[in-house]
Amino acid sequence: MASTPEQPHPSGPDASADPFTPPHPEQARAHRVYASLMRIAERHAADEEQRRRQVHPAVLGPHEAVRLVSFLLSGAAQAVEGEQEVDHADITAALTLLPLARGELDELETGLLQMARGRGMTWPEIAFGLGLGTPQAARQRYERLVSRTGADAEG
Question: 54-109: per-residue pLDDT in tens?
């Protein structure tokens, strides 16, 4: 019997090359997260005009404010010349905005789930995208979001 060359493991080059070992779910998801960011960036945010569509030009959104303070505190972003240092009041302001930012994200997720279902995606497909183990978990997550956001539940 002739031997066949080993096929690369589906979850990436760092994973085991053993075709009989299932991929590690967290590692596979991490690869998918990066691929997802790159896909959307290349297809829908390839230039400054496309990226500006999601940002209000004059008003900082709650999630942007929280991220900015967090990035400045962590060193992921550098203050510009003349900008004041982040102080306790800035941190308190960012903490105050967290529930609003979380609410916005819940509304975005609810809407995206409703649109996914409207476009024919199944609960198993949605569970995969969310990194959940079962279609039931995806459906339950959707129902919790609907109850928190007050969105109309799917029929």
Answer: 777 778 889 989 999 999 999 999 999 999 999 999 999 999 999 999 999 999 99
Q: What is the 3-state secondary structure (H, E, C) of the chain?
A: CCCCCCCCCCCCCCCCCCCCCCCCHHHHHHHHHHHHHHHHHHHHCCCHHHHHCCCCCCCCCHHHHHHHHHHHHHCCCCCCCCCCCCCHHHHHHHHHHHHHHHHHHHHHHHHHHHHHHHCCCCHHHHHHHHCCCCHHHHHHHHHHHHHHHCCCCCC
Question: Model pTM?
Answer: 0.70
- Which residues, 6 or more positions from 155, have their beta carbon under 8 angstroms from its beta carbon? none
> How distant, in Å, are the alpha carbons of 9, 21, 59 from that of 96?
45, 46, 17
